[in-house]
Description:
The chain has helices at 6-30, 56-70, 74-87, 94-104, 108-118, 124-188, 199-233; strands at residues 241-244, 250-253. It has 254 residues and is mainly α.
Amino acid sequence: MAQVPGDMFSRTGFRLGRAAVAATCAGSLAMPAVVRASEPEGPEPTTVETSEELNSQAQQHALKAVDHFNKGAYVDAEEEFRRVAFFAPNWRPLHFNLAVLAEAQGKLGTAVSEYQAFRPHGSPDEQQLVDQRLDELGRRRDRIVRTYRRQIGVGASLLTLGLGSLAGGVTSFVVYRKRKNEYDEAQAMMLPAEKPNTGLIVGGYWLTLVGVLLAGASAGLLVQAVKSKRKLDSITLGKTRLQWAGGAAVQLHF
């Protein structure tokens, strides 16, 4: 196998790093991703000396990552950048790329910690961009919190009203049925009795219908509240695969 000069990888890695950062900078500003807020789950900011160089293995994975990024396959791109981190953990653009990909997938905690890890090694323009992203992520988190609280409050209120309406409808049917039975027994015994009011049936149907509609609306709001809570908790599993492990067991890989 022919030997490739080391400086070639150095120059290529430098160009790739700049290209990746440029692409992800543009992507981060245009990305309308919903952010999921939580405590940072990525690496803490570091002052370790970084490098623009990539070895051959890291370069291959970086090229694949950029290709996936350009195609919008953010989970695959993140996987490739994680492989780059294994072969070249001090590559300067690494944390910025991981931050943008985390933001694209809605993982706010990871995005924040990756931006913070990159910031000490960025140029003044890059640091300004990082500060902008951190500010935007913070404001998105506040919006998600407000939405979550509103959905919980309105959903719980509608659910209470819906259940009350359903209970009223069932009660109307039960009362009508009881009076109808008493009326039928009196008629059979040739005794005078008041005929049950059919308004109980009409009222029961309307109460039941309103209860179902309110319960359905509350269920929709509560489902949205669960989704908002997941955003706050940064619950994003990404691409998963099931692998048979023998017997009835399976292993879940992320």
